[in-house]
Amino acid sequence: EDTLRDLAAQNGGRHFGAAITYNPLNNDSQYRDIAATQFSAVTHENEMKWESLEPQRGQYNWSQADSIIDFAKSNNQIVRGHTLVWHSQLPSWLNNGGFSGTQLRSIMDNHIETVAGRYRGDIYAWDVVNEAFNEDGSFRNSIWYQGMGVDYIAHAFRKAHEVDPNAKLYINDYNIEGINSKSNGLYDLVVDLLDQGVPIHGVGIQSHLIVGQVPSTFQQNIQRFADLGLDVAITELDIRMQMPATDSKLQQQANDYRAVVNACLAVSRCIGVTVWGIDDERSWVPYTFDGEGAPLLYDGQYNRKPAWYAVYEAL
Ligand code: XIL
After folding, report:
1. 263 falls in which pLDDT band (50, 70, 90)?
2. By alpha-carbon position, which residue is closest to atom 12 of ligand 1?
3. How buried is residue 153: exposed, middle or buried, by Cβ count under 10 Å (0-12/13-18/19+)?
4. Catalytic residue status for 236
């Protein structure tokens, strides 16, 4: 039987990936087997974030991040590095440090040198900047924006390119699946970065979606970024529903997954799809969105859901 990763590879050399986490990977053999066999790309769900890597200034915890890199190597998987510059999941020494713009620039440089330097050669693509936008398309007022202004973005990409010139460098965000104010803001920024010669190679469309609400302009939106000469990846796909799950919601979810995969497959520069977790039980959704859940391809007992079969058929 073909796996999802085989089918994606046969379909234009694409990857089909999953976000994985250290804990089930090391103590749950069913989880580990599915992670190894069905997926050709992995993203650290949390282990590569700043608060995980450097909880105290200058004291790094590499073991969990390294272990996922090793897992990917042994299973011939690419790694999407997630993420270098973000406003969230920062250690409190940084978030509450009251640093000046000049200090933040050097902290950012040091972080990119240390992290992207350590993993140089191991990372297929970095999410260099994550979630830079507000819903209206303006820039999010993060510590980076406050301290360094909008140039923090170009600066981060230039630094990442200097440190790991072979990694594909992405900007990544959510609620940019369809054509809307936020994706327009991103589009304008990307055009501007390309004009300035900033080394940016891809747009990551997170795709944390809701059952029955896949935007109708998804494919058109992917296409306009591809037309700028960029790769596009679906980086964090999940499609949640109001609990409890019913057969009809699970069927709608299968149709929604099929629609997302087809939107990607219709654009040659859409080079892969990553789902944000393997099974419903271990998804971030129930912990994050009150009353919602069941967003992934496997249920909590690792049974394949209708959405799994829909993806299989679409690929
Ligand atoms: C989420 C993880 O899944 C959770 O375990 C964690 O508690 C919070 O972050 N956008 C991103 C991801 O870029 O890093 C987030 O991951 C989900 C939203």
Report:
1. very high
2. 45
3. buried
4. yes
